[in-house]
Amino acid sequence: MKINAKFDSGAIIVNQIDNEKQLAKLNIAYDAPHAGKPYLQWFHFRAYQMDVTKPCSFHIENAGSTTYPEGWENYNVCASYDRKNWFRIKSTYDKVDGLKWTLSEPKYTSIFFAYYPPYSQEQYLDFISECQMAPSKRCVLSALPGETLDGNTLDLLLIGSPPPPSINSSSSDDNQKLKFWIIARQHPGETQASWWMEGFLRRLLDPSDAVAKVLLSQIDFYVVPNMNPDGSQRGYLRVNAAGKNLNREWDKSTAENSPEVFYCQEAMKQTGLDFLLDVHSEEELEYVFLSKTPLGIPSINDTQVELYHKYCSALMKSNPEFQTTHGYKMPEKGKSNLGICCAWAAETYGCLAMTQEQPFKDNCIFPEPNQEWSIARCEKLGASVLDAMFSVMGDLKVYRAK
Fold this sequence. Notes:
The chain is an alpha+beta fold. Helix content is about 25%, strand content about 20%. Strands 11-12-14-13-15-17-16 form a seven-stranded mixed sheet, sandwiched between helices. The chain has a five-stranded antiparallel sheet with strand order 1-4-10-6-7, with no helix packed on it. Helix 2 (about 190-205) crosses helix 8 (about 375-400) and helix 3 packs parallel to helix 8 (about 375-400). The radius of gyration is 21 Å and the shape is globular.
């Protein structure tokens, strides 16, 4: 048996392979070790040349020393033979002994394992190309005004009726439509956000969907499907090529350290902002929820709070996977970290801004033993938020007019 991770988002360290026992002893690698070894949690690798006549076992020895060790409690590893159909393999975790799983009857000689089903750059390029060719003809594929440190493009989908002009255009956008920004993958290892984007954008661009039609008649959408392509390709969990956690850079972004945030903020200055949704995933909690971070900004007003709760109520009705009982604690009044995107946006623009969280494990309210929190469930959650947006659209228009 051999182990390889030399591909898009691949990441693992091989400590030892015992071919007699068909056992691989592994370590999870640090994100951006040149920047001070800030995080380690993501893994994605291929095992090949396996002997299918006997079990094959894997042992991540440093799991108890990762950034979120409690994330391994009740966690089962994701696996795929074809990189399209992913399933879970029962795993065991001990804080001293690490994370272990066994493929008792390998079907083929090669298999992929990952912390969560990956979303490659090639797949991403295919999808955004599909979006610009959508039958609704409501999507223009543009880009933020700068590149990443690795030279990647920061793609921006302009979706409206008609599409708003490019942010690089000198023409002014004087229409009265609301401005909604939707961003994902600030933390590159949270690939659930990309699968969420597929569900969200396919429904938004569906010419036969009445909710999408009404939204597009009233709203211009600015969508950044992947805020951190460098970290995504490098196989990092939370940081960019400079080792910066982008979701702590919104109060101090620079083109040198966090160009992804810096150029997004420059674009927002030109468009304005009525609504922001930042899509993430949560390593430890087994629920779908929204962060309460924007409710603790210094300038929070009653309307922002009311809109937040109205959006939550609508999303629960649209998709019962979402709930409000479990999640992060309410921040201390006026003490939210303005380096976090949703807090910065709510404080800077006085808008409704939120962070969507999804689990790496299962949603324990609706357990599903084979795939747990799956690709399909990410996509359905993304599609269902259109109903919640529809519910607050009128209130946001009234709020902006004040």
